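Re: the request from the purification team.
They wanted to know what the chain is likely to look like in 3D before they choose a buffer screen. I agreed to run a prediction and write the result into the notebook, where they can find it.
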Amino acid sequence: MLTLKQRQERAARRAARIAAMHDAIRQAARTNHEGSGVMKKHEVKVGGEFIAKVSGKLVHVRIDRENPHGGWDASNVATKKAVRIKSAQRLRAEAGVTKAEVKAAKVAVAAQVGAGAKPVVESAKDAKAAPAAAKGEPTNALEAHYRSQKDAAKAEKAAKMAAWRKEVAEKAARPDPELDKAIKASEAGRQAKKAKAAKPKGERKPGCLDAAVRVLKEAGKPMQCGDIVRVALEKRYWQTRGATPGATLYAAVLRECVAKGAKARFRRAEVKETRDGKAVALRGYFTLADEHAGKKQ
């Protein structure tokens, strides 16, 4: 991408080429018609075509008629617009410059602009034919100065990074007793915490079902869950802070009976009581299964 200064220089060169081209064409026309560059009034003829200066530009016009207020009414040959020519000084020469004269004007432009300078069309052709210039090369002293500063900054940053990496590598390789001591202490603390958290195999806090088995075995008779809990708490076979420990034990016994079926440690017991001469079956009594009643807990 071109810099602002490069774009300004290119626009200035282009403007110089265009101005030189116009001057060369006017000079060629004057030489061809042997004129002094300023036409006389008697040289202007109605119906003739001339090179006239209109709004600061040279255009090709045709003289249509004389204007009653002086000068002539003309038409722009290219745009067909009406043009007012107030005096013969506006006219440079008769139209009809040959191709040879235009070519000679181009050569004159190249000589005026400077060595190697060419018109826009020829420069475009040469640009297509010539190989592309090397990319990234500075085109002026200012750009070269800024580029050198940028390269120097990059080199300085790379040097600092290399020094920092070397310092880090040396520090990592150097022994550090304090760091080693801290690592060992941390590892020892971790192992101690892990050992403290681990529970020995076989040691398990007795639950309500284990306490119930023990109470039923010692009692040797069916009991209700409320009585089992009361005895277990008194003998410290089980500890709980629940509000309804009897209901908790009853639900746990039923879950084991349903889950294990014939292998469950508990069985429902039929207990009857005589009330008013009638035998009444009592509910909520449990006893141990035969295979568990004789085992030592």
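For the purification team: Residues 115-121, 127-134 have pLDDT under 50 and may be disordered.
Please add any questions underneath this entry.
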